Amino acid sequence: MIKENKLIVITGATGSGKTTIRDYLVNHYHVAKVVTHTTRAPRKNEQDKVDYYFENDETFAKNHFLEHVQYAKAKYGSSYEGLEKAWRNNHCAVIVLDTQGAITYHEKLGNQALIFFIEVNDPVILKNRMIERGDSEDKIKQRLSSHEYERDLKVPKELQSSAYVIENNDLKHAEATIDALVNKLC
């Protein structure tokens, strides 16, 4: 029997550990990573075509996006080509999106999209994670005061009946929850 392609959509607030959890899935389960596009500058140790396709406004506009948003003055988007490329490598792929993007994928892919909402109960943990990853104080203040940050702190009503909520105050606890879900769903 051929398995249906699945896409794990990781969403939640900035600093919740979405990228760390994506990397866990890639490294421990060999899930294919969907590389997305952004106009923001690379962070320390990020590589073009590995972490993101780093673009300018002109090149960003030439892509075929399934969804795209503007967040903290930068554009982010995921392309059909990126999704298909990931599925060529593995029937189960993973992508990191904000909650608005997760809603779009849920609507467009239906049961193929497995929504993992990453939740952190302590805002101090979120801020400390942003500091640890090298975000500037100005960038952190901008993100923490944004509408998008507030929106992404809780599961949107459109995803409440389908999202798997994963508490990530402690990474080992989150990994155990993820292990159970991946073995059941993928």
TrEMBL record:
Domain Guanylate kinase-like as annotated: residue spans: 5-183
UniProt xrefs under CDD domains: GMPK
SUPFAM superfamilies (UniProt xref): P-loop containing nucleoside triphosphate hydrolases
Transmembrane parts of this sequence: none
InterPro entries (alphabetical): GK/Ca_channel_bsu (IPR008145), Guanylate_kin-like_dom (IPR008144), P-loop_NTPase (IPR027417)
Entry-linked SMART domains: GuKc
Catalyzed reaction equations: GMP + ATP = GDP + ADP
Superkingdom of origin: Bacteria
Protein keywords: Kinase, Transferase
Family membership: Belongs to the guanylate kinase family.
Its job: Essential for recycling GMP and indirectly, cGMP.
Protein name: AAA family ATPase
Organism, as annotated: Apilactobacillus apisilvae
Species classification: Bacteria, Bacillati, Bacillota, Bacilli, Lactobacillales
